[in-house]
# Entry
Amino acid sequence: MTLDVLLLLALPASGKSELRRYLASLDPVAAATDLNLGPTVQLDDYPYVHMMRRIAAEVRAAGDSPIFFESDAEPFIDPGDWGTLTQLINSDFADLVRDEEGPPAGSASDWLFSRIDAARARAGLPTVMNGLGPMTMKRLNNTLETESRDLFDSRPLLREDMPDHTVVIEFARGGPEDRALPLPAPYGYRHALTQLDDAILERASILYVWVEPEQSREKNRERAVPGRDGDASILHHGVPERVMRNDYGMDDLMWLLAEGGGSVVYVEKDGRHFALPTGVFDNRTDMTSFLREPEKEWSPFQLRQLHRELVNATSGLRP
# Structure
């Protein structure tokens, strides 16, 4: 038996995406024997953050009132859009089993805009894309169709020959620095986990990558590659400093774990109670940054150390 769903959680630049890369490279026997993982199918909400920033920039350039972000350096205009991102994860999870060959009406950008509006509605927010004028929508379709098509085509698909897969879902949530716990909605993991569909919560374990907020900010600066190549990359994008301090100045996962007695995170949703087994990968002494390099350059010594710590961190996560 392998883990069905692994939530890979941490502050930005903590090593989540690097660990995803490592897990995807593992020998299947070692992954199953040591970590209880099947072939990984990976989901991440960052591509939607990137596209929402792209949409916001084009809307501002068209002279319309800002949506999503006031500027490239600012947090969400409405913090409730953290819930939009969680709902988009739910959509991607539901789409892991699908049979469609292309986006509705053949337009990937229209598919993306409708998907964002639907996620906003499920998060309890007003829709915004369907309220834009025809000239702005034409500009968005022309400018963002290729990137939207790339996003549509890159969504993972579960195949019939993958019965023992593990779905790895990466996302980061937090709150303003120095904020007292518990964090108020819509900030933090306490709120975000309640927004996940029951189909995820019923099957999920958590692997938390632990770094201090100061380390997260430093590593965020180090990994950032300027321009589109960095902004569209899960390994090399940079989060604006104001966002790092306002939305990721701290997080509440270790607090939630302590509330659960040190081994589980409890989630209460619509009268149901879920207990998510949780392991902590202590990355305060950096063991993951080398994974950004080409795989052929990975150090055997660092790989052994990393694997040993991963085994320890996931030892309590059993199907």
